[in-house]
Amino acid sequence: MTTPSPHGQPYGPAPTYPAGPAGQPAMQPAAQPQAYAQPGHAPAPGYPAGQPHAYAHPGHGPMAGYPAQPAPTQCRGCGSPAAVNVAVRAHQGLLIMMRFHKLDGPFCRSCGRSVVRQMTTRTLCLGWWSPISLVAFTPFTLIWNLVAHLKFSKLPPSTPAPGRQPMDEGVPVLRRPLAYVALIPLAWAVWVVTGVITHSG
């Protein structure tokens, strides 16, 4: 059983501090850290009560543990900040051989539409000269590029980086003569299918 001290503290008298030089007050005890817990709230588990909360640690920022913000997407052609990461494809059929081409983004509005028009025109011209390409790969490539074209068209006008220029979009696909080379294999396919149906009937 402890005996209360005359100073009102159960652990003995408060320590005394020597007086300072002449004309200066005596030294005062260092201020004790205050607990920030509110009445009725227990301290966080694993953290000692009565200790101030550490808001930062050496080498760690206040948002440690959170992923950094990703860098803004920029067009690979002109550096425009308004870009979308979509690949553009082209296909070429060579009787029993096939070639696949893909150009990855990101692209802005102007550069993306330019690439789509070039790759689509190439596919319409060279993508039908194989049986499998005719019925599978070339139609898939054209649909893929159409979806990519719609995504690029939804972007705002291109704002290229200083010293760079966006790619020239050129004329639309249907105004390019090479796109109509596709009519030759398509007409041949229609003729073959019609002949098969006629002979089987």
Structure overview:
The chain is mainly α. 29% of the residues lie in helices and 7% in strands. The protein has 3 helices and 2 strands; from the N terminus they run ββααα. The chain has helices at 109-126, 131-153, 183-200, and strands at residues 88-94, 97-103. The termini are far apart. Mean pLDDT is 77; it is low at 51-63 and 66-70.
Q: What keywords describe this structure?
A:
single chain; 201 residues; mainly alpha; two-stranded antiparallel ribbon; 2 strands; elongated
Rg calculated over all Cα atoms: 38 Å
Largest sheet: 2 strands, antiparallel
> In whole angstroms, how far apart are the ends?
115 Å
Strand content: 5-15%
What class would the helix/strand composition place it in? mainly alpha
Contiguous uncertain segments of 5+ residues: 51-63, 66-70
* Element pattern in H and E: EEHHH
Q: Helices, strands, pairings?
A:
Layout: E1 88-94, E2 97-103, H1 109-126, H2 131-153, H3 183-200
Antiparallel strand pairs: 1-2
What is the gist of this entry?
With 201 residues, the chain is mainly α.
